Amino acid sequence: MDCKIRSSTCIAPINIAVIKYWGKSDEEQIIPLNDSISITLDTDYMFTKTTATISPEFTQDSIVLNNEQGSGDGVRFQNCLSEVRKLAASSKHASTVEKSTWKVAIVSENNFPTKAGLASSASGYACLVFTLAQLYELESHQSELSALARRGSGSACRSLFGGFVRWFHDSQPCIARPIAEAEHWPELRCLVAVVSNTSKSVGSTEGMRRSAETSKLLEHRVKHVVRDRIEDMKMAILEKNFVKFAEITMQDSNQFHAICLDTYPPLFYMNSTSQAIIQLVHRYNQIRQSVKVAYTFDAGPNAVLFLEQGEISRFASVFYSVFGSTPHDKFFRGKVPDLVDPTEDVASLVPEKALKGQVQYTIVCNVGQGPKNIDPTG
Amino acid sequence: MDCKIRSSTCIAPINIAVIKYWGKSDEEQIIPLNDSISITLDTDYMFTKTTATISPEFTQDSIVLNNEQGSGDGVRFQNCLSEVRKLAASSKHASTVEKSTWKVAIVSENNFPTKAGLASSASGYACLVFTLAQLYELESHQSELSALARRGSGSACRSLFGGFVRWFHDSQPCIARPIAEAEHWPELRCLVAVVSNTSKSVGSTEGMRRSAETSKLLEHRVKHVVRDRIEDMKMAILEKNFVKFAEITMQDSNQFHAICLDTYPPLFYMNSTSQAIIQLVHRYNQIRQSVKVAYTFDAGPNAVLFLEQGEISRFASVFYSVFGSTPHDKFFRGKVPDLVDPTEDVASLVPEKALKGQVQYTIVCNVGQGPKNIDPTG
Q1: Whole-angstrom distance, CA of residue B170 vs CA of residue B159
Q2: Which of A208, A280, B261, B324 is a plausible cystine mate for B331, CB 3.0–4.6 Å?
Q3: Burial, B35: exposed, middle or buried (Cβ in 10 Å; 0-12, 13-18, 19+)?
Q4: Residue A378 above 60 pLDDT?
Q5: Closest partner CB to A268 (pick from B217, B265, B275)
């Protein structure tokens, strides 16, 4: 190998927690107070793409994030980078050890608008760590990579795996592992509804700290509620029991936001549109006389809805009719669903007026795979 | 006494809980899961007025509520009435025993719009029980009367007393008792902000039942949080420590709404205007570099704000500037405050736009007395 420059380009998925992570027991190491479970979404529409280049000719590390020259996000980026290098430096391959001393140039971008409030840090750090691992030939160190991604952004440790993923708060090292592969539940669909008029709110690092310090309910959640829910959710996923899966997902999302409200001063991440979506889902399930749709909300007003393929035309038609104001092929992105006449359902639902236009657009996804190398020669 | 007709007219105040009542251990008896503490508001602007008339000539009980012939609110009204009669029948005064057999005609009205979502059942049942007690000369049975009002509407047991009142969940009988008289803290003021565009939500009886059945956090609140808060709140009141009083009031309001959100399906009582009021209060306290204002919300979007007299002109001016759209002497009712120029404060607060008109009007009260007889001869 004479040409002393190496480059790799990879993409990584976002993941949506169905049992929420909120609160750390160790801020510096990013150790969560409780286990969480997430679903990895396919990368057809949303992903982070990262190119990492290393060369002994480079005189300094550099990073370009979403077309802006950056400082590499400060401490967390540096933590990630130096930990990957440490792992490379301890390799038994001389070439990996050598490369660990070279400077690196990172170019990373999200193909979804970060301003829409879709968490980009999970896919971002997962992609960074995965891409560097390709360069240093560390792919086999899956556990270590999950732990390294965690140091960048807690939930990034889950985005290193496809399918259904559990992040253990007390494993050594603290890592995520798959519960089931993406192919396990092929009928499952996910709608990511991007809500209009989101206002800036308290960031999740600061929010978690404030909850851990002031909520009188968080400790009870962590110690007495989540443990059972994790086991129940795991069973629901393994059994593909949609009703059980949906109920726990909704209950845990609501409890996370309840903890935010019990924080002092309180944290509001959901807005009136989020409330309207929750109420629509419960009313829809009521008229369907079964739990057909579930919602979950992270630290922002956007809704993530889960349902099975058989329900998607009917529900998407109702959802679009109530919240959409653009043509349906602009409103839906990704796997645009066929729509049916929603008149009867909407009449039974009697949604509040003035909801039209409250959802900007909705991305339709399947459960997806973990990060992958997209080098032409890769 | 030959003229065999007796009549009495009384008024009763509303009360605002600062440690919330949510959830019953006995639905039929209306025994709460935890103690609560409330403040009785003066009756200058808001009260229930009830006239009760008894006569051996009447052939049946009758009730007119807010100018509508009613069934007497069914079971609860009948419970109250028959319990008061039982108490009268056990009197050692022959005249009281005789009167307990006569039929009664009740005319009751609230002088505040019940549709505004201001709880009318507490003042209503307190007034009913108090007025009947006047007729039957049972005024000295204060404890029994509190317990009887409770059978009509739980929090009515607190409206039988002025000032600062604690409702005990485990006393025998289950009653409220004053912590301090209204005169104890003469500087305390209360703003009741009636929010526009309130939508119908789940009633509190049904809501409490649902929370008790489904919230995984309510039991922890009841057993481990409220007990300390009750003692801390009592001390804050006795010491007139406004900062402590305000912090606990806000934290307990938020925790009550957190429990509502942890209920399945979730209960939403606050709306986006309520959120905006909460955020304004926290920002106002921040620029004042001290806790000068507290908020609390019951099972609806209306805000109740507490502050001391010295702060009222400044805060009311800011509040009106942000949320008001009618002339200030229409916006404020009751003890209309003098306003000052809020420009500088509002500039520091940078409130969200589009809040003007979100509060319909605001009633300004003092801490007040319990029910009273207003018979001309009374």
Answers
A1: 19
A2: B324
A3: buried
A4: no
A5: B275
Amino acid identity for residue A282 in this structure: H
CA distance linking residue B27 with residue A240, whole number of Å = 38
Token digits for A18? 């169905």
| DSSP class of B41 | B
DSSP code of residue B139: T
**Beta-carbon separation of B262 and A258 below 8 A:** yes
Q: Which of A368, A374, A370 lies closest to A192 in space, CA to CA?
A: A368
* Chain B residue with minimum CA distance to A270: B272
Asked whether residue A198 carries a pLDDT value surpassing 90, the answer given is: no
In a mutational test of the A interface, the residue from B224, B261, B270 whose CB has the highest number of chain A CBs within 10 Å is: B261
Residue B114: Cβ-neighbour burial (10 angstroms; 0-12, 13-18, 19+): middle
In this predicted complex, what is the ipTM?
0.93
Beta strands in chain B (DSSP E): 6-12, 15-19, 24-26, 31-32, 36-40, 48-55, 62-65, 68-70, 103-110, 164-167, 176-180, 188-195, 293-297, 303-308, 332-334, 359-366, 372-373
Residue A158 scores a pLDDT above 90: yes
Contact B150, B174 (CB under 8 A): yes
Q: How far apart are alpha carbons B87 and B100 in whole angstroms? A: 9
Q: Rounded to whole angstroms, what are the CA distances from B89 to A90, A328, B94, B97?
A: 91, 72, 9, 4
Is omega for the bond preceding A113 within 30 degrees of 0, making it cis? no
